Amino acid sequence: MGKNIAEKIFDAHLRDEPFPGTKVLDLDRVLCHEITTPVAIADLLWRGKDRVFDNTKIKAVIDHVTPAKDSKTALQAKMLRDWARRHEIVDFFDVGRNGVCHALFPEKGYIRPGFTVIMGDSHTCTHGAFGAFAAGVGTTDLEVGILKGVCAFREPKTIRINLQGRLAPGVYAKDAILFVIGQLGVNGATDRVIEFRGPIVDAMSMESRMTLCNMAIEAGGTSGICLPDQITVEYLWPFICADYASQEAAVSDFRRWHSDPDASYERVLDFDLSSLEPQVTYGFKPDCVKAVRELAGTAVDQIYIGTCTNGRIEDLRVAAEILKGRKISESVRGIVSPATPKIFSQAMEEGLMQVFMDAGFCVTNPTCGACLGMSNGVLAEGEVCASTSNRNFNGRMGKGGMVHLMSPATAAATAITGVITDPRQI
Amino acid sequence: MKKTFSGPAIFLDRSDINTDEIIPAKYLTEVTKEALRPYILEDLKLEGFDPHGKKLKQAQVVITRANFGCGSSREHAPWVFEVNGIHTIIAESYARIFRQNMFNGGMLAIELPREELDRLFAMQQEGEVVIKVDLQGQQLSASAGGHSELFRFDISPFDKALVQAGGWVDFADARY
Ligand code: SF4
Fold this sequence. Notes:
The complex is a heterodimer of chains A (426) and B (176). In chain A, the strands form 5 sheets. Chain A has a 5-stranded parallel beta sheet, covered by helices on one side. A 5-stranded parallel beta sheet of chain A has the order 17-16-15-18-19. Chain A is built from 16 helices and 19 strands. Chain A folds into 3 domains: 150 residues, 2-Layer Sandwich (Aconitase, domain 3); 116 residues, Aconitase, Domain 2; 146 residues, Aconitase, domain 3. In chain A, helix 2 packs across helix 5, helix 13 packs across helix 15 and helix 13 runs parallel beside helix 16. Chain A has 426 residues and is of the alpha/beta class. The longest helix of chain A is centred in the first third of the chain and has 16 residues. Chain B is α/β, with parallel strands linked by helices and 176 residues long. Chain B has a single domain, classed as Aconitase, domain 4 (Alpha-Beta Barrel), CATH 3.20.19. Chain B is 30% helix and 20% strand. Chain B starts with 6 loop residues before the first strand and ends with a helix. The chains are: A alpha/beta (426), B alpha/beta (176). Chains A and B meet through strand 1, helix 2, helix 3 and helix 5 of A and helix 4, helix 6 and helix 7 of B. The structure holds iron/sulfur cluster. The site of iron/sulfur cluster (SF4) has 13 residues of chain A, from helix 4 and helix 12.
């Protein structure tokens, strides 16, 4: 019996199986941010174990609330900063160099096919786009990861999802994943890896694959995962060119991680998305998904374009394309947060920032505080936000606020009219 | 700190209760567990549930439905239960990270089939429900109004070892 990609990664990283079905894996990357790491650091200090297993495999960033908004967030940042200096974490990103973790770390080339990755952040599943097993964990798992470089998981079970057909113009990876979550339900992939396959995934850029894998957790998934291919190699090429004679050599090396043709899956689901329309959420669970058409005309107060789901350059391009030469409605405020400094400067070079500003958007530094209601765009009671983020829980962006999740194109179209709008109508 | 896996229960009758409802993100700026205490379940809207009520104050066990703790990876969610003296949760199922976080902290996340949970929920009619967990024997008793019922539960040897070790840090540190 063949193996699927997650099983191959587990086999290659197995350190211990303390009990049948419990796999303790060696970690290639332990990623840290300032919200969940300080408590782990404090606990390690308290235990007299202020050590790190490998300062080159640990990467850290201050990204959620940055620059600090008050004394408490300043203290969180300081704890991470002091710790990173103390342990000579070379790849530590502070104000001026920092960006949203799940955009920044891939952009730096830190995530490679076949890697095991953990982070104290549920959207760590994003990194599975590179053919890695990447899981969000809590602070205790993070703490043990920092100290010992291991993490325990149950034997992986995988749901394979084949995205068949071709996405129509105006329909993006975000629409695809919202649709899939609507089908699976918020509990549909709990404790499962979701392997994304099919012609739609094969045709996607790495940015789009990250958008896809980013929301695996919203169906309960441990990790999303895509098979590494030519597109993966092209994205990683600046970082791996010294290791391989040619791109073809890299592609064929990474192919060893590919799921075998006779690999087994817990479930295999086929979705033909050729006739998929733009999607949007209603209510307070990410599986409450409808076609934008069905919610068209719903008034919103704020537009938020950014986050680890859709704050990448291709997202900004799509939104700017729609906003070009237009003004956003007087009834809304628009906020755009490019996810990393590199994306920010690229967007400036391409003139996208001017488009956003001319349209009436506020451009923030790379950060994601608004997404979880901490800073830079928190909602007031009763307000509604059209957002490119990944979570619409009640009060997520501010107590009493409501969030509609959508693609950057739909968010841009909605900004212009002030009501939820199908981007194909603009 | 010694953990107790028995005591009066509070019932949260809804599936998919998420981590933002358990502890809103705005409190994630706290760097001690203790500071979270007043904010437990602050944003949970549920008929008959009062996050500041006596019932929650006295509870040592939470009984709820499916996919409990979905959403964020924040370990603040189990912690806010811990600092409120709740070390046991009984549900039909959990989100993976939340469940792992419970055991990683030496707490107990018990799973029971829906029909048995229905029986537990029904016991509320008879008065306050008190739970007693026998971890070794993998069973729990629920009593209310002078009558009690026994429920068996499964727990993996790894999860049991974590509870007994007091959590994953001690377990891992001794072994790796
Ligand atoms: S963008 Fe939102 S979901 Fe992503 S890491 Fe930031 S707060 Fe979390």
